[in-house]
């Protein structure tokens, strides 16, 4: 049996748990101290230990899965990697902080562990990263979501989410800016950047569309390899419209890979 540690137990983590393959079990969940008692009560009938620090686990997980947000990756990532535990992350936007990126890279190297950037809500990262080998001239990413998905983000100050009546671009900038300004909505921008031309050169547009219920991710890349356009229209999770179901599925896949000898 493979044992995983979850960092975070919100919409995405719960979706992952509901789809875990046979042969993989959650042994630890790490949440902020103020949520620990309540969650421990909720999980009292399970074998899951609810912790507020990764250091409270005394055996090594086969995988640590971060599904908790930028602050959580900054808080726990380095410790996990220094312990030699493999870490898969969805809050990729946190890596737009060059210092955090360098710290995690160094911790992974010192701990002989690995930091896996999950593809999350988007697809095509393998092709983009391969295309980069011969040089990329341009990468553009457009994210389009419903007003509901942008509530609680700085989009609220850039466009009236309650009255917008047509698809409207409310942000244009670099992947790094998008990831920092929209930590719960633009992790994909950082994922594309890390697989392509980097945080500064990746161009990003964020769009609110009152006529959609999907989270749509469009990538256009051009380079020596040729040209690629991908559009992925994902269903949001009912429990968090900011987060696409596919993001959770990319984490489920990482768990399944623990069981597979062929990658
Ligand atoms: N790469 C991708 O495609 C995507 C990445 N994400 C990332 O996944 C994160 C989680 O998404 P959801 O589950 O939908 O959000 P959510 O808000 O439903 O759940 C977040 C969970 O993390 C916990 N948490 C917060 N701070 C923590 C800390 N310091 N340590 C441990 N746990 C902590 C919260 O208590 C909560 O249980 C998002 O914040 C975002 O950064 C989200 C969607 C797509
Ligand atoms: O789940 C999505 O559609 C994308 C998302 O929130 C992110 O990139 O942070």
UniProtKB/TrEMBL annotation:
Domain Aspartate/homoserine dehydrogenase NAD-binding: 8-113
EC numbers for this chain: 1.4.1.21
Amino-acid positions noted as binding NAD(+) in the UniProt annotation, renumbered to this chain: 121, 187
EC primary class: oxidoreductase
InterPro entries associated with the record: Asp/hSer_DH_NAD-bd, Asp_DH, Asp_DH_prok, L-Asp_DH, NAD(P)-bd_dom_sf
Single Gene Ontology MF annotation: aspartate dehydrogenase [NAD(P)+] activity
Entry keyword set: NAD, NADP, Oxidoreductase, Pyridine nucleotide biosynthesis
Gene3D superfamilies: Dihydrodipicolinate Reductase, domain 2, NAD(P)-binding Rossmann-like Domain
Transmembrane segment boundaries: none
Catalytic activity: L-aspartate + NAD(+) + H2O = oxaloacetate + NH4(+) + NADH + H(+); L-aspartate + NADP(+) + H2O = oxaloacetate + NH4(+) + NADPH + H(+)
Domain Aspartate dehydrogenase residues, every copy: 165-252
Pfam families to which the protein is assigned, alphabetical: Asp_DH_C, NAD_binding_3
Associated pathway: Cofactor biosynthesis; NAD(+) biosynthesis; iminoaspartate from L-aspartate (dehydrogenase route): step 1/1
Active-site residue numbers: 217
NCBIfam families: PRK13303.1-2, PRK13303.1-3
Additional free-text comment from the UniProt record: The iminoaspartate product is unstable in aqueous solution and can decompose to oxaloacetate and ammonia.
Protein task: Specifically catalyzes the NAD or NADP-dependent dehydrogenation of L-aspartate to iminoaspartate.
Homology family: Belongs to the L-aspartate dehydrogenase family.
Annotated protein name in UniProt: L-aspartate dehydrogenase
